[in-house]
Amino acid sequence: MKNIAIYLLAIGTFLTGTSEMVVAGIANLIAKDLQITVALAGQLVTAFSLAFAIGTPIVVTFTSQMERKKVLLGSLSFFLIGNIVSFFPNSFPILLLTRVILGTSAGVFIVVAMSVAAKLVTPDKIGNAISTVSLGFGASLVLGVPLGVFLSEWLGWRSIFALLTILSLAIMIPLFQLIPKLEGSEPIPIKEQFSILKNKKILGGLSIFFFLIAGYGANYTYLTPFLQETIHLDMTTISLSMFVFGIFAVAGTRLGGFGADKWGTSRTITYSVLFHTIFLISIPLFTQSVLLTLLLTGLWVGIANITIPALQTYFIQQAPQSSDLALSASSSVAQFGLAVGAGLGGMLIKFSSTTSFNPWFSAIIVIFAFLSSIIVLSVKSKVVSE
């Protein structure tokens, strides 16, 4: 029964991950329906990410002493409400508000789901339980986003929020029955959470993470309109392409974990960020070929996801006694980066009236991640120690 509960928690993280990134695939449809620009529709990603980054640590801190089952189901309830409201709005401001609700509730659910999963198993199986829950978020890129694009083209963009509502309700009932009462813990003060930033290695790693995700967000958020504008794909083909990109993302994540163990975190991070930049620069140069553009885009998504597990491993190495705080901080910084990237990418589209320049603009941002990795990681010395 405990295994079933953990798989249900993984489904929950799948739903929350889908709710965050699916907007990147349907921004053009939302823009057309609400009669707004694609750049403005992209700010729905920004709102979700900012709410996730700011709201999650605050809510988690203030609810840390509450019984875990109540917090878990409470966050899922707000997530469900956010999706219901997202199905009905005819105005952008209301939809923007729902993204704040969804971002905060999704962040709280993910954090508490991992905590609950760890308490449902014996100490020797905690890693496996947490990785199972985390896999749900990665699966959202492979299945959730392309499925959302397909359904939106077939039944309208609101259909994805209706489906998320139904599925959220479907897992809420068995979770209520299967999750036992679990006591909370003493809250970690916000001040103590920020104390992790006194570690210069952690702070440097967070700067890499911020620029990496900001660059990724500035391009990925507007990937659908980019593919429509440059290589003239229809939504069905884009949905299939998103599925393939998701496979590249999962492969990259697996390779990143392998690389961190095999070649060391410094090498894996530095070289993956370098190739991340190169592929971003290359994409607009080959848009005369549909297949080459899609291949380069898939490789870009894969390379970008190599860096993430390597950075997470780096954080654990640098702060083994406070790894939870370091990983929590990295999650917030990543969401901040995504918000900034989506916002800046939208501004670029507004002023240039095209998505063609977004990959190059993203490359400029990721160059800062590469320079930060050179400065922070001290590649030569770190490779020897690792």
What does it look like?
With 386 residues, this protein is mainly alpha-helical. It folds into 2 domains: 1-180, MFS general substrate transporter like domains (Growth Hormone, Chain: A, Up-down Bundle); 189-386, MFS general substrate transporter like domains (Growth Hormone, Chain: A). The chain contains 16 helices and no strands. The chain has helices spanning 2-34, 38-41, 43-62, 68-87, 92-120, 126-155, 158-178, 190-194, 200-220, 223-231, 235-262, 265-282, 290-318, 323-352, 358-377, 379-385. Helix 3 (43-62) runs antiparallel to helix 14 (323-352) and helix 9 (200-220) runs parallel beside helix 14. The radius of gyration is 20 Å and the shape is globular. The termini are far apart. Residues 379-386 have low confidence and may be disordered.
